[in-house]
Write a structure and sequence with these properties.
Length: 495
């Protein structure tokens, strides 16, 4: 039986979706069916399709009581909405169905493991406080559309180690182990008020035993952690998560940031030792990334193309807010996280345009052959003279507005900026970071989709993304230089 709360959400979203024309949405980035979206949840390959759930509040474009929205795709490019999967309708999640994951069981069912938020129990003095517990919902049909919630929470507050927070205990990610059982990683706030990742083991997804603390935040990154994801990639143990209250350093930008820790994982002791910290995306908007392994073995990562510190800004009368990044293939090479747009995008390349050895002079040159705001561009800058100090690609150009991806040769910094793209508030609208191109050749791949820009420098060793909220932007593309060089441009429209 579907609860009234879920039925109401499903009815509402089906109607509200009709009010949003396809022109008002991104073309190949997932946006909420209606209302608000934050973290990707339950990213899983099930019965021939990628399922992507998301933190969802259908009734408004701001964060509210969390539901799980649901979409499926066969190609990671085009998504089809399915009815909302979870609503805050049971005693264990009345205050919200927070982030979690999807896992396929041996009997072919899709299990959603998520954080339920509920008021504290009777015997706890401050009843107004919320606790976070881990919950389970199992698919009831072969397509994974309707889910049945387990009557009891599968990891209760009592299973949190002594002295650690029961209010901050969330975002379970479940993986299968070699012996067929399940391992769950969740974040928790420790005795010092900082993040840690806890591990639990189960044979049936219902009874979980605590195995230990995988990693405790001793010297960063940030303070509290969210959304852990632990896996092996190219022979390295990788712990991805998102960290809050980061302070600026050479390698990390301040605020809430998606991070990737590379190190070693002792499976028997459930201990992660951490050698290197990488910010997943050095642009303005990227958080709460989650990965899935594709049937062909590729690791695909998707993130929320937003940032908690600036997500309260939006263009007037928007009917949806929040979008996902384009799914990215990830690799570890020479201790670097390498990211590229999932190759599935190539099936949708249209109108190939190639410009070879274009001479760049001081100033701006419009690339008149390339136009649009759904593009996949690769630009290679070569033969730069010693005076070459700056190169920029301007996107969405028109009416004096544009967004920009650039490289500052003098200071060896890559950057993205949207200060001329309709921003009317004192928001963060520019970010740059240290970057050295390989072998006197600067290569940038940029994917553009109406409301966003994702830039990949070199082979993908640096990703920088940002959302664009511009009511007046155009569709022109130009390049700009200080100094002279030669460029090759390869551009496709995406549809
Ligand atoms: C991360 C997060 C999660 C939480 C969810 C709530 O962005 O704060 O930790 O489960 O969002 O919507």
């Amino acid at each position: 039986m579907k609860s009234r709360i879920l039925q109401k959400a499903r009815k509402y979203e089906a109607e509200a979706e009709k009010q949003i024309s396809i022109e008002e949405r991104p073309v190949f980035h997932l946006s909420p069916r209606t209302g608000w979206m934050n973290d990707p949840n339950g990213f899983v390959y099930f019965e021939g399709k990628y399922h992507l759930f998301y933190q969802y509040y259908p009734y408004g474009t701001f964060w509210g009581p969390m539901h799980w929205g649901h979409a499926v795709s066969e190609d990671l490019v085009h998504w089809e909405y399915l009815p909302a999967a979870l609503a805050p309708d049971s005693k264990n999640d009345k205050e919200g169905c927070f982030s979690g994951c999807g896992v396929v069981t041996d009997d072919g069912r899709l299990a959603l493991v998520y954080t339920g938020v509920r008021k504290m129990g009777k015997n706890i003095s401050d009843k107004s406080k919320n606790v976070q517990i881990q919950c389970l919902a199992m698919s009831k049909d072969a397509e994974g559309i309707d889910f049945e919630k387990n009557s009891f929470a599968v990891i209760e507050s009592e299973q949190v180690p002594q002295g650690c927070s029961i209010e901050d205990f969330r975002d379970p990610k479940v993986v299968r182990t070699e012996d067929g059982s399940f391992l769950l990683y969740a974040v928790n706030k420790n005795e010092e008020g900082k993040g840690q990742v806890l591990a639990y083991k189960s044979k049936d997804l219902k009874k979980w035993d605590y195995c230990g603390c995988v990693l405790k935040n001793v010297s960063g990154p940030g303070v509290m952690w969210e959304c852990p994801d632990l896996f092996t990639l190219d022979g390295k143990a990788v712990l991805m998560m998102s960290a809050q209250e980061i302070e600026q350093s050479e390698d990390l930008d301040p605020g809430s940031v998606g991070v990737c820790l590379i190190g070693n994982y002792d499976k028997a002791a459930h201990k992660f030792t951490h050698e290197k910290t990488i910010q997943v995306d050095r642009g303005l908007d990227f958080y709460a990334q989650q990965t899935v392994q594709a049937p062909d073995g590729r690791h695909i990562m998707i993130g929320w193309l937003q940032n908690w510190d600036i997500c309260n800004y939006r263009i007037k009368n928007t009917k949806w807010f929040g979008q996902m990044s384009f799914p990215r293939e990830i690799k570890i090479e020479k201790d670097l996280l390498i990211q590229q747009p999932a190759r599935e995008i190539e099936q949708f390349w249209k109108n190939k345009k190639e410009i070879k050895a274009l001479k760049l002079f001081e100033g701006k040159q419009v690339l008149s052959e390339i136009n649009g705001n759904c593009l996949d561009l690769t630009i290679v800058v070569r033969k730069y003279d010693s005076e070459m100090s700056y190169f920029a690609v301007n996107l969405f150009e028109g009416n004096g507005h544009f967004a920009r991806v650039y490289y500052d040769f003098r200071n060896a910094k890559a950057g993205v900026g949207r200060s001329h793209a309709g921003v009317k508030n004192a928001l963060l609208s520019e970010r740059s970071c240290a970057y050295k191109p390989e072998e006197n050749e600067l290569k940038i791949r940029i994917i553009v989709d109406r409301f966003s820009v994702e830039a990949f420098f070199g082979e993908g060793e640096l990703a920088m993304s940002m959302c664009i909220y511009d009511e007046k932007c155009g569709s022109g593309v130009s390049v700009e230089a200080l100094g002279s060089a030669e460029i090759d441009v390869l551009g496709y429209e995406i549809s």
